Amino acid sequence: MTQFHSSVNPNSATFAQNREDMLSAISTLEDIVQRAAVLSDKSLARFERRGQLLPRDRLSRVLDSGMPFLELMNMAGFLVDDDNRETSVAGCSTIVGIGYVGGARCMVMGDDSGINAGAMTALSTKKANRAMDIAREKKLPFIHLVESAGANLLEYQVEMWMDGGGVFARLARLSAAGVPTFVVLHGASAAGGAYMPGMSDYVIGVKGNGKAYLAGPALLKAATGEEADDEELGGAQMHSRVTGLVEYLAEDDAHGIAICRELVERLDWNRLCQQPPPREYAEPLYDIDELAGIVPADYRQPYDVREVAARIVDSSDILDFKPAYGAATVCMQARVFGMPVGIIGNNGPIDNDGATKAAQFIQLCDQADIPLVFLQNITGYMVGTEMEQGGMIKHGSKMIQAVTNTRVPRITFMIGASFGAGNYGMCGQGYDPDFLFSWPNINIGVMGGESAAKTMSQVMLAGARRKGIEVPEEVIAEQEAKIIAHFDKQSDAFYTSGRMLDDGIIDPRDTRKVLGFALQTCWEARNRKTCPNSFGVGRM
To answer: What are the structural domains, with CATH classification, of the chain?
Structure first.
């Protein structure tokens, strides 16, 4: 055992300042996440009049009590539909995550119809598509608690309509891959949304409230002049006895959810998965709460990434791979909840030796079928004449080749800076990690705002010199201030997560739990048998 000996002093002024900054960011995260629930709950009276459960109550009832639930894309849509930080609501009118239903790990999506009747926002379809992609890759039964007014026509965007087709394509692919899909029709599922139950394997309709139609009464009258009531046109009772779209008719929301749970339980999904071997493990030696005080808010302030790893891995046991070679790129062998992992972190930019070391380490993990964990705090690859002549492009490419083509699960946490090609080499979103989460303190982009500003100043000065023009210092300062503000706005964790450049923001102190859950999800996917067919299950 190679236990890491921490040099962090929790009583130091530096630790206290780091902790204050991080807790402030966590508080902002909690406030933003809570906004959707508060707004949705204001519709309680309307739901009670209709004899319905609130969307979050539906979600809690479908999930096994006391079992973990990993919410995904909690920031989706933030600062997209509303660019006011004080009023913007995250979530895209849906709640998505991985949890347990009848003992089986499932992907669950609930329409938040307490917010604008569940109308879709700009990124709603992108969020749904990502959820279904994960469900297919990880062989997770997909459960959708449906009640949505469809696309918000007042905020119509052609991209949203086009992306919406991908939702139904993914349902078809899930079914064909042998991954069952379930819909509980709690309320309206109109227009294109009607294909949500139409493309699902099992449909439960709630009597009175559940409806599915290609054209609702208003659209029908506008398009054809025909008048029809909701139930006649697309009510759950009609679909259960006339069209056959609804297999199971429920008396109310609670009954519909109970039927859904029973159906999942009857699948006995876990019989198709090997049981994991018994794993013994010990908790880290150091309190995970200390993660709030280790990482500085200013990414330019150095710290040892091993201090982060030591509060995540079992027994704080870390075996350093080539610690003296390419020392700024840290490669570690460890275990998390008894599962072996290879961890790559950053103590500075990636140089030639660091890139070569990381590429070799990735290949060794691939050879041994050991998942990779990336702790991103990277300002990029080293530049300069010495680096370029030493083959930085070549060596950096080795690392990117390895990251791209490894066959093992890859889970990325952005914990500080994530700039330039460093993001690529450390398995950023463009490299399709199995899961990617951000801490609320991160900065992400092609480069930092100051670097961009100084670069453009040099460009401006070079152009002025060629023309024999003198550029006043105040002009340079004004340009730099504008560039820094422009870059900094877009590098903020909440801005980037709102645009779904990750799978959500987490509290750093939850990193070990989230990592363990993600690793086990990946393990089950690789050890689960499914029964695919050619076209999925066709409705009869």
So the answer is: 24-272 (3.90.226.10), 288-447+492-522 (3.90.226.10)
